[in-house]
Each structure stands twice: as structure tokens, then as C-alpha cells.
Amino acid sequence: MNLKASIFVKESPHLKSFYNQPIIKNFLKDEENQKVFMAAHERPTKNNLSVLNEKFKSFYYHAKIYKYLTSLIQIYSIDFDKRERRRKERVNLILDRPISDSDHSSASLVDVLKFEDHGVEDRIMQNNLASIVSDEKLLKILAKLTPKQNQVLTMIYIHGLTNKEVAQYFGDSPQNISSLHKQALNKIRKNYSKVK
Questions:
Q1: Are the C-beta atoms of 144 and 157 separated by less than 8 Å?
Q2: What are the Cα distances from residue 98, in Å, to 17, 90, 95, 102?
Q3: Over residues 83-89, mean pLDDT
Q4: Residues with Cβ within 8 Å of residue 87, at least 6 apart in sequence
Q5: What is the DSSP string of the chain?
Q6: Which domains does the chain have, with CATH numbers?
Q7: What is the pLDDT of residue 134?
Q8: How open is the CA angle 23-64-9, to the nearest 5 degrees?
Q9: What is the CA radius of gyration of the chain?
Q10: 100 class by beta-carbon count within 10 Å (0-12 exposed, 13-18 middle, 19+ buried)
Q11: Of residues 67, 71, 57, 48, the one with CA closest to residue 27
Q12: Residue among 134, 130, 121, 114 at smallest CA distance from 184
């Protein structure tokens, strides 16, 4: 209880329980609210009481919203934890199970095993379109394409990636990849009949 509230308690001891309520204590912690409260107590005009009433309504509304949101977050997090625990119990993968049956160790196979994903980059380096093509004419034409056009064709036709996935790999737009793809196909079509 602050100093100003304690003055009012001394003046009227029957209001002690009123000033000890958490909402009133928190309301009077703010200096602006204290000033409005003091003005309404010292000069209880209609305007001062109206300002105090509006300040308290606003404070009370925000306090209710805050309380509601904090309890909602708490309840939701508990509920989420329960649902996640139930899901893990129902769908317990082999790798998620504990290594030993003893209660002392909670390590699972996932924690112990190392997994390395070499990703798209390594797969592209291992296979390219030229290594699969057996037609000599087509090999000569593929050699004339830009490295990026070759990579785009390899990613689309060998690895089955979409324009969007290829664009993400290059940090480019899907439209640009589509354009590169079309240009490469047009070069191949145009030059295939010319190459001997």
C-alpha cells in the first residue's frame, strides 16, 4: 500500500480492505492514476469523479484482457503439452524409443545416431545430364549451353525438381528459371539439326 492510500486508511479504517485489493493497489501504483484519485478525493466534483471513473474503467478493462490472455496462454500451453505427449505415446517411432529400458537413461536412437543430408547440391554434382546422354549430337549441343542452363536441365529432368525448387536453389525467381529452361530447350531444338 502506498503512502497516499495509507493516509486514507488512517482517515477511514473501514476502507482498509478496499485499499488492500490487488486491483486497487495496482491502479494506484501509477502516478497519473494517483493524481486523478487524489483530485477526486480532495475535490469530488462531477468532472474529477468522471475522470477517475474513466481511468479506472480503462485500467480494469486492460487488467481483465491481460488476465484473460495470460490464463489462455497458460491453459493452451498445458493442453498442447498434453496433446503432444499423447501423440508421442501413440505414434512412438522406433528411433524415438529409449535405448535401454532403465528409467535412468532417456536418450533415444535419434539422439545417438548422426544423420547427414548431402542435399540437392551433392546429388547434382554426382549426376548431370551429359553423363546420361549417349547421343553424340546432343552431347555437343549440351556443351554449348551455359553451365546454369545445364544445371537447370539436370535438376528438372534428372532430379525431378520443380521450377520453384530450382529457383530456391539458385536464389532466383521461378519465372527466370522457366525462361532459362525454355531458352535451353530452344537452343537444343535449333542446333540439333545443324550439328553433324
A1: no
A2: 56, 15, 8, 9
A3: 81
A4: none
A5: --HHHHHHHHH-GGGHHHHTSHHHHHHHHSHHHHHHHHHHHHS--HHHHHHHHHHHHHHHHHHHHHHHHHHHHHHHHHHHHHHHHHHHHHT--GGGSBSSSSTT---BHHHHS-----HHHHHHHH--HHHH---HHHHHHHHHS-HHHHHHHIIIIIS---HHHHHHHHT--HHHHHHHHHHHHHHHHHHHTT--
A6: 3-89 (no CATH), 119-192 (1.10.10.10)
A7: 78
A8: 10
A9: 36
A10: exposed
A11: 57
A12: 130
Which span out of 16-20, 72-76, 109-113 was modeled with the highest average pLDDT? 72-76
> What is the distance between the alpha carbons of residues 75 and 83, in angstroms, rounded to a whole number?
12
Please, which residues bridge with residue 108 across strands?
98
User: Which cell is 196 given?
Assistant: 553433324
Residues 159 and 124: beta-carbon distance below 8 Å:
yes
All three cell numbers of 54: 474513466
pLDDT digits (tens, 9 = 90+) for 109-133: 556 555 455 555 555 555 677 777 7
